[in-house]
Amino acid sequence: MLVDEADLELTAWAPTVGELLADSADFALVVLDLRLADGTSPKANVEALHDAGLEVLIFTGGENPYLVRSAARAGVLGVIRKSEPAAKVVEALRVAASGGHVMTTDWAAAIDADPDLPDVGLSPRQREVLALYASGEKVTRVARLTGLAEQTVNDYLNRIRRKYAEAGRPAPTKTDLYKRAVEDGWLPIPHYGE
Question: Which ranges carry the HTH luxR-type domain (predicted)?
Answer without folding.
Answer: 115-185
